[in-house]
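A further point concerns the way the authors explain their paired sequence and structure data. The central task, working out the structure tokens from the amino acid sequence alone, is never made concrete. I therefore recommend that a typical entry be quoted early in the introduction. An entry of this sort, consisting of the sequence and the corresponding backbone structure tokens, reads as follows:
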Amino acid sequence: MQKIHREKAKTRRFVREMLPLAIPVAVNEFLRSSVHIVDTVMVGHISETAIASVNLAGQIFFVFILLLVGVCSGSAIFIAQYFGDKDTKGIQRTLGLSLLAATFVGAVFAIGGVAFSEEIISFYTKDAAVISAGADYLRIAGWTFPFVALSFVYGTVLRTMHQAKIPLVVSFVALAVSTGLNFVFIFGHFGFPAMGVKGAALATLFARILELALLFAVMRVKKSIALAPVKRLFSFSRTFVKRYAITNYPVMLNDIGWALGVSLYSKIYAGISTQALTAVVVADTIFMLFFVVFFGTGSASSILIGNKIGERNLARAQEYAKIVLKIFTPVSICFALILFAGSWTFPRIYGVEADTLRMTTIVLWAYAFIMPFKCFNYHTVCGILRSGGDTKFALAADIGGIWLIGLPMALLARDILGLPLIGVVMFLLSEEIIKSVITYHRVKSGKWINRVI
């Protein structure tokens, strides 16, 4: 009984530390994701072609965001441990390296997205109407990449330093502006012409510019250490850059490989039919509204575990990892049941046709089944392994899952077995089940704990 009481006390202590971090991060990610969701819902009332075109244009944004996640996740490993060690200079020079990397990535994607919009969309589909609308969207929205890059880096640094409320407030304002401008630009109100998908792109661009401007303004008022002088941001030595690169490159490769693999999933779905792609797009956006909670808990877990490693309290870090897996698996099952129960109702807000609605509902059933496995993998890879600097194993687990299991299984189901959409989805998602077994044994071994600073 005493042992059970001690375990409950440890769990309560972890939850008390985790919630103030997890809730703002989860809400912030929900708001960030909602900018794209608002685009999808509103253009859904134009046509299913508009939904498919915005989603395929969004694939380059998806790859871009995953690249930023790679840059920032690697940086967050250092920042969390520096924060635990109370090393302000270490935090600032890590931020400087992150800004350099993110700015470069943002500039490359902006040029590529604007200049080669039609080529990018035509990679995923041969539907001329979808290509035309998707290119129109990307030529405008492509200019958001540099602004998103800077906002993402500063937002990650602030959350890792337990200042998650700042990016949360800024994201809320950005969502409100995006929603209002979508209404005006897409449908044509207050004297503006109805611009359709171009209007959605323009609203997103204005919202992202405002988001970055507000973020700088709030940091200045709060006198955040993230607004460090240029000299401090870029005062890193070769030794530090080398240590940063060794730890960070597996995270970058991980997220690049994962993003490209998941992006190819859209190509596979588009190869079935535009209707199938639309059904998956709608199902994905609904699923993300549920899963966004775990972005918060995963991020908070990573920060707390990284802090303990920075404090040299390795036993507590291992203890926290076990608690993470113990409490969030049953929570994810509850969310999965809610998703399943609402699988016929939720897609109706998109105004899709009856056949597409039916396909979407069936896909949501598959997503509800796989949610506990996906949640488990997210917390092990992003919340535990990366926080301990075990980035190479995380790389192997994620890339192996996508490229050696998910993609081959999807192609097998579509091209050889000739299965319908739900069969392709189920074959593809089998990688989450296999990956969960591998990552569980890694966490249990304790080999993932490394002090990188």
Q: What stands out?
A: The CA atoms of residues 329 and 376 lie 6 Å apart.
